[in-house]
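User: Could you write out the 3D structure of this protein bound to magnesium ion? I've included everything you need below.
Assistant: Certainly. Input first, then the structure.
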Amino acid sequence: MLKVYIEEETIRKRVREIAEDISKEIGNREVVFIANLKGAVIFFSDIIRNIKSSNVLVDFIATESYKGKETTGEIKILKDISLNIAGKEVVIFEDILDTGLTLNTIISYIKEVHKPSLIKVVVFLDKPSRRIVNLKVDYIGFEIIEDVFVVGYGMDCDEKYRNLPYIAVLE
Ligand code: IMP
Ligand code: MG
C-alpha cells in the first residue's frame, strides 16, 4: 500500500528554494549539471527549469545498486557522461543519499576519470539512518529521519512508482 509521505506542493516549494540557492551560487559561470539516472531525473528536470543562467550544460550518468528494497553494496556504472568536463565546475544530482555507497562511487569515478575543477553535490532526500560512507553534500531537499523505503518523484521499487508526483512510503 502507498502512503503519502511528502506532498507535491511541499516538493515544489522546496525545489524552487534549492534552485534559487544554486542560481545565486553559480551566477552565470559555465557549470555542468550531472544527474544520476534513473532516480534523479524528475528532481533534476524540475531544478534545471528553475535555474536562472544561460551557461548550464546537462549530462547524465547511470548507476545500479538496488534489487527491490535492498542495496547490493556493489555499485555499477551503467552509463558514463558524454561531455568533456575536464577543468570544469560540476554539480551532481542524486535522488536519495542512503548508505552513501552510490554517491561515493560516482564522486570518486568522476574525479579520477573526468577531472573536473570542482564538484558540488545535491540530493533530493537524505536518509542518514543507514549511512556507511560519510560524504559532504552541498544541498539537501529533505531529511528523512525514519528508516523507511520511499518511492515516487523518480524513485522506484523494482522500477515501479517513478511516475508518482509525490513521495510515498511502501507499506
Ligand atoms: P546508497 O548507495 O545506499 O546511498 O543508495 C542510493 C541509491 O539507492 C539511490 O540512487 C536510490 O536509487 C536507491 N535508494 C536508496 N534508498 C531508497 C529508497 O528509500 N527508495 C528508493 N530508492 C532508494
Ligand atoms: Mg533505484
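The pocket of inosinic acid (ligand 1) is lined by residues 39, 65-66, 71, 94-102, 149-151, 155 (CB under 6 Å).
User: Perfect, thank you.
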